[in-house]
């Protein structure tokens, strides 16, 4: 893409109604982009959007949504309509659980404040549909953002980060006024991670800075200079400055290449990929060393491995209130799957739970509301199956490390002959 102007012209919006949120107008190559900074928990912001669109000035509207979030607004029950078996098979259970938790947090805020977060985005969708205006979705997919956050932060911070996320959004305590104020500056992810993002460059980059750049690149693709005359860009106030600065600067001639690079998920390190195989090799080597010393020691190590891994993983499924058959099957499966990196205990546990307790139509229809309460995660068969998967996986992982250290201690401890 090329710009007709080397330097964009800046001008104040004219003939537009006054708004509660900030406006910034940038003209590039004959196209005027009017950026409206909104508060995601604000009836005023929704009114701003309606007034601007109905003003008749704009021939296209771009909003801070991705395809997935746009679909969830049009079809609120879409999350519950996914094929659960495929969710587990593709390794998306954690992502789905996090999305449900974020949705629960959103619902709690709506109940408390009387305002549905993202009301201004809904207003834009409805008004564009009514006036038959092009609607451009310019934000990055929320799943990709979560994955890039996960890959970007050091591995030792990942558990505390995401356990804090799930803990905060599943809590039944009232959402503080401070949290609601944070939502007026950023979206659900930003409000949830704001405590960490302020002090972590590794988190701030994929959560804020990359998305500012991404939205500017999407505008360059979907609404390049000359395609439309006046484009309204609706985005959270926290993104107004960054996205505006990117639009003001010359954008690359091929924005698609850079945009795709911001969608790529950094691959795990070779060491991290090799870790499951390395652990398996070490455990099997431990068994071999034990049997080479004496048969009794070898069987002791094998039995301890099975008991520790099986009990911890099965106990985790009990915490998820899994079916008794699931618990028993997980007890026997976990020690074996821990020695086979191609299949996990969580996958086996969830598969059996799905077979024993097939979710019913009402489970899918009430999923969105059930997960707003902590007990609802165990009551609903869909969310409970997700818990079975996650807790069985965690239990098996803990069991692997505990049993591994027990084997090492038995073989190389000071009291071993």
UniProtKB/TrEMBL annotation:
Keywords: Membrane, Transmembrane, Transmembrane helix. It holds the Pfam family TraB_PrgY_gumN. The chain crosses the membrane at residues 274-291, 303-322, 328-352, 386-412. Residues 1-23, 245-267 are annotated as: Disordered. InterPro entries: TraB/PrgY/GumN_fam (IPR002816), TraB_bac (IPR005230), TraB_PrgY-like (IPR046345). PANTHER family: PHEROMONE SHUTDOWN PROTEIN, TRAB DOMAIN-CONTAINING PROTEIN. NCBIfam families: traB (TIGR00261). This is TraB/GumN family protein. It comes from Vreelandella zhaodongensis (Halomonas zhaodongensis). The lineage of its organism: Bacteria, Pseudomonadati, Pseudomonadota, Gammaproteobacteria, Oceanospirillales.
